[in-house]
Amino acid sequence: IMAEAALEEDGSDEVMEEAPVGSAQKQTRNRKMHWKTEYLVYCFFVRCNISMTRIAALFGIRRTLVHDIVYGWANMLCDTLAKFFPVPTRSQMLRAYPKSVIKKFGHAHIFMLLDATEIFAEVASMKSVNAILYSAYKHHSTLKWLVGCDPIGTVWDDSISDGYPGAVSDPIQTTVTKILEQIPFGCAVEVDKGFLIENDCALLGIHCIRPMKMLQGQTQQSKEDVALTQKVGKTRIPIEQINGQMKNSASFFDKRISLQQIGLADLICRCSYLLQNFKLGFIQQHSGKKKGRPCKAHIRWYDGEDDGLIDIRPFVEMWGTTSEIRRWNEIREMPGNEDLTREQISEMVLAEDWPTRLRKEHIERLS
Fold first, then answer.
1. Cα-to-chain-centroid distance, residue 219
2. What is the mean pLDDT of residues 239-252?
3. Do 78 and 189 share a structural domain?
4. I need a surface site. Which of 57, 73, 83, 138 has the fewest CB within 10 A?
5. Exposed, middle or buried, 70 (CB in 10 Å: 0-12/13-18/19+)?
6. Which of 20-29, 140-149, 164-173, 357-366 has the lowest mean pLDDT?
7. Antiparallel, parallel or unpaired: β 188-190 and 164-165
8. Which parts of the chain span the membrane according to its record (predicted)?
C-alpha cells in the first residue's frame, strides 16, 4: 500500500534533479522514481529482506532499476554517514565517559571495544573458494567484519573494517586492517579472549585489556584472572549490543549472503552499523528517569549529556600519560594561569596532541 501511494504521488514521468541556483554542479541523473520512493525500495530490500525480483513486481519497475537503486543508496549512505561520524577526539571521548567503566578499572584509558561479527554466506562450488570462506568457529562459510565502538556503543566509519572471508583469524584481520592505529598512544583497547593482539598493541604504544585463557593443564584461574574476566565481561556489553542491533535492523543478513553480492553486503553492513548511532547509548547505572534522552551521536560529537556519564577531563590522573600529567602541572604553575579551571588546563594539554608525538618517538625507538 505504501509503495502504491508513493508511486501515485510521484507519477510515472521521469524526474530531473536540478542543481541549486548559482551552483556549477551539473544536473544529476534522470530519476524514474521520487527519491523517497527509492529509499522505500532500499528499505524493502535491506530491512524487509525482499528479493529484487519481487520488489520490481511490487513497484512495477525493472529488476535492473531496483539493483541500481539499492547500490546507489548503499553507497550514498556510506559516504554521507562517514562524514557525520569521524574518529572522535580524546576531548570528545572524555567529555562523556561512563562512570561504570571508571568504577571497574579505575581509569578512563579505554578508547575502543573491539569485536568480530560473522554472517553466513553461500557455500561456494569451488573448493578453493569454499576453503577461504569456511569459518572454523561457525563451521560454515561466512563473511567477517571487525567492528570497534566506544564505551557507550558509538561507532564511526574507520572503526568498521571491510568484509573478510571467514577463514581469517581475529589477530590476522586486526593486523591487516590496521584498525588499532586510530587508538591514541597510551589508551587501551578491550577485546575478547580470541584476540591475541598484544604484540600489535605494543608496537603502537597502546594497552590491550583481554581476559586470560585457561593454560594447558590449568584447572582453575587465579583470582586476578577471574576478576579481569568479570570486568571485561561487564564492560563489553555495548559492543555485543551494537552487533545485535545491526543484525536486527538489517534483515538482509538473515539469509545467506550470495557470493555475487559480497560487495553490496559490505556496504549494507557499514551503513547499518553507522545508523545505530541515532539510537540510545548503552549506559550502565542509568537512572531511567530522564526524558528526552540524546542519541549516541549527540552525546559523542555534539556535547549531549545523559545519566551515568561524567566529564572526566578535569581529572588528568585518570586519563593522562606521564608526559601529559607533567605538562598539565607545568601549565597550572605558570604565572597568569591561576584563574584557569582544571577543565581549561586539560583542554590545553589535549590540544597539544601528545599521543601523536609520543607514538612517533616510540616507533623511532623500536626501529
1. 37
2. 94
3. no
4. 83
5. buried
6. 20-29
7. unpaired
8. none
Number of structural domains (the chain) is 3
Which contiguous run of DSSP H or E holds residue 207?
Answer: strand 207-209
Tens of pLDDT, residue by residue over 160-216, are: 999 999 999 999 999 999 999 999 999 999 999 989 999 999 999 999 999 987 777
Query: What letter represents residue 143's amino acid?
Result: L
Among 43, 68, 84, identify where a domain stops. Answer: 84
Cα-Cα end-to-end distance for the chain: 65
Please indicate, yes or no, if residue 302 is contained in any of the structural domains: no
The CATH number that applies at residue 163 is 3.30.420.10
pTM equals 0.87
Cell digits of residue 150: 566506544
Same domain, 178 and 323: no
Interacting residues of 238 by C-beta distance below 8 A, sequence separation 6+: 113, 149, 150, 151, 152, 153, 281, 282
- 237 and 261 in a common domain: yes
Is residue 119 in some structural domain? yes
Q: What's the Cα-to-Cα distance from 258 to each of 65, 68, 123, rounded to whole Å?
A: 19, 17, 9
* Phi, psi dihedral angles at 50 (to 5 degrees): -100, 140
What cell does 296 get? 549516541
Instruction: Give me the count of residues in the chain.
Output: 367
Domain that holds residue 35: 2-84
DSSP code, position 71: H
Output the CA angle 351-79-294, nearest 5 degrees.
60
As a whole number of angstroms, the distance between CA 154 and CA 156 comes to 7
